């Protein structure tokens, strides 16, 4: 499967870093984050990546290039002058043929140290238009937003006012999506966020789930960056990224 990296955000929580760099290029132990992320994807058997870029996307393109440094084929999908949201960007990529259904997707600030092949196998077995990886978070790293049972996401909702006691999981950040899943974006007014599409799929009973047990890391906040730097300094995967 392709892996689509959603990397068009402004990264406001990481200023002043993101006043001169996109989040994907924030230095992590002296190496641009994208290098760590692409190295992980390559080790997990991914061969083709599509970057969905917007803010300072030219800098991501200049650093990553065609992906050959990581043994990957990398192509780019640009937001364009009209903001369409993460789900809108994915629909645009599907319509152009750049993205092939089904596909994996994650965010350009997420480092997810899990095995990817079991996620793909779980999606194939679930016979649903989408699958979300979930982690039993219990509000440890961020507010839990998923009710998960029997291989299905029973409810996904990021809005605090709609939280329920059975939400002990969180969206881990890696999903498998299909063109039919993204058709839900057509029901949303204005720019469509992927989280809104996932919410609709969950209430329709069409969003499979796969539980992972390794915590996630991210560079979307100063605390997250510090955590990832500590993790990479002590893990066996440290030093395998290309600067």
Describe the overall structure.
This protein has two domains: 1-113 and 223-238, Spore Coat Polysaccharide Biosynthesis Protein SpsA, Chain A, CATH 3.90.550.10; 114-215, Alpha-Beta Complex (Spore Coat Polysaccharide Biosynthesis Protein SpsA, Chain A), CATH 3.90.550.10. Helix content is 28%, strand content 25%. It has seven helices and 13 strands. The strands form four sheets. The protein has a seven-stranded mixed β-sheet with strand order 5-4-1-6-11-8-12, with helices on both faces. The longest helix has 13 residues, at 222-234. The chain is globular.
Largest sheet: 7 strands, mixed
Net shape: globular
Number of domains: 2
Largest beta sheet: strand ordering: 5-4-1-6-11-8-12
Give the count of helical stretches. Answer: 7
Percent strand: 25-35%
Structural class: alpha/beta
Classify the helix fraction into a percent range: 25-40%
Can you give keywords for this protein?
13 strands; 25% strand; Spore Coat Polysaccharide Biosynthesis Protein SpsA, Chain A; globular; alpha/beta; 243 residues; 7 helices; 2 domains; 7-stranded mixed beta sheet; two-stranded antiparallel ribbon
